[in-house]
Every structure is written in C-alpha cells, then in structure tokens.
C-alpha cells in the first residue's frame, strides 16, 4: 500500500516527520512537500514558472512550490502507482472553522480529492510559545492512524475529504474523537505599517485569534475542550439551498437580460 504525504509547513517540519513515522508501519510512504514553508497558501497552483524537485533522501522530495504543486507532482510524476491515500500534515497549528479557506494543509488534501484519491488533512492545536519539537506529535499521530484505518475500511463519497484536528495533549488526556461541522473563527483585523532601513513603508497583515462563535458542538470549541475532531469537507461549494431561492427571486432571464424590469 502506498501513501503520499505532504504538508504546508515545509519538508523539514517535525509534523511531517511524525506523520511519516506514524504511517510507515502501515505501508510505503512517499513524501513530496514544499521546499519552504507555505502556510496560508490555500489552493495556489504554479503555472507561470518552472518547478524544481529536490531529492532529499530515499522517498523524500522537496518541491519549490506550493502544497498543491507538491501533491500534483507526487500524483502525476513521482508516484509509481496511484496512492491508496494522500495525507497532509501534521500541521503545526489547527485548521479549524474558516481557517480551511486559507489553509495549504487542507488544499493539499483537497487536490488529491479532485483526482479521486481518498485524502486526509491533519493538524494539531498548539500554544505558539511551545517549541515545535515539544508538541505532542505522538497524540496527533495516534488519531491520524485511527482515521487512516477507518478511511481505508469505509471510503468516503467522491469529492469528500476529512479534516482532523487534535489538541496538543498527552494521548491519555485527549477526551476522544468527535465528528463535527465547521464553526466560525474570529480574528482581530490588523495591518501593521513599518519602515525599512531606507524609510520605505512595508506591512505585516494578520491579527490574533479572538475566539470561536456559534455552536459549541462545532469543531473549534470541541478541540479547545480537549477533543480530537473530524470534519468532512467537500469539493463542491454550491449552496444548494439557495438555488431555488435565486430562481424564485427572478435572477434567471433569457437573451440580453435588461438591468431593470
């Protein structure tokens, strides 16, 4: 059995090494990941410059592009056969609620789902003051293995992937595993202006996490409460419930469609 592994934290990330250790007893692992960190790159795909692939060691390749580039390269160039599963992670930092719109970790798994390959994204909720090597990667790895086994035994419909988030706790302190929907995460809005040594302005954007709002049984509150959480995500973003509403409101028209009735 072949697993294709990737991430958005870069080829040297401890979470990627933990992922490979977790899954190598279950099958052959091919690691194809970005050369450098590509967090928050979403589903960016490189089309207007060449990509270079660096062989790091046996079974490990770094791509000087995005997470999606890496999975695409793995699927269509480096894999000797279609993988049984693509796993992206283990990301340092949770991908909860509306984070999934920005996440390169999610996008790597979603790219696999686009090609009909079962896929899983895995992340760990961290205190950013804790050094990367001190997180409970073994706890996250345990739930990754559990999710992989179940995903292989009970395949999802085409175009659906799984998003796993695990609290940074010893395994015996994780309360268990729950299936939950995405919630709503709020960040402060910040664009900070600074000056370089020549007096020219530059900007840092992105504010701090303020909290989760809405249903306490959604993904964010549950992970903060000590649960590992699985959320199924789909490729098709169509808001099906609004299709009939738009038709009933007269959005459809024939011909030139005048601006007013």
> How far is it from the N-terminal to the C-terminal residue, by CA?
61 Å
Q: Strands of the biggest beta sheet: in what spatial order?
A: 3-4-2-1-5-6-7-13-8
CATH top-level class: Alpha Beta
CATH homologous superfamily (4th level) name: Survival protein SurE-like phosphatase/nucleotidase
In DSSP terms, counting alpha (H) and pi (I) runs of 4 or more, how many helices?
6
What is the CATH topology classification name?
Answer: Stationary-phase Survival Protein Sure Homolog, Chain: A
Q: Kindly state the mean pLDDT as a whole number?
A: 93
**Domain count:** 1
State the order of secondary-structure elements, H for helix, E for strand.
EHEEEHEHEHEEEEEEHEH
- Structural class assignment: alpha/beta
Total strands:
13
Choose one word for the global shape. globular
**pLDDT < 50 runs, ≥5 residues:** none
CATH architecture: 3-Layer(aba) Sandwich
Quaternary state of this entry equals: single chain
Q: Let me know the largest β-sheet.
A: 9 strands, mixed
Fraction of helical residues? 10-25%
SS strand fraction: 25-35%
Q: Rounded to an integer, what's the Rg over CA atoms? A: 20 Å
